[in-house]
Amino acid sequence: APKIAVAPQNCYKVTNGAFTGEISPGMIKDCRATWVVLGHSERRHVFGESDELIEQKVARALAEGLGVITCIGKKLDAREAGITEKVVFEQTKVIADNVKDWSKVVLAYEPVWAIGKEEPATPEHIRAVTQALRSRCLAEFPERHDVSLRIIYGGSAKLGLYSKIS
Question: Global pTM?
Answer without folding.
Answer: 0.86
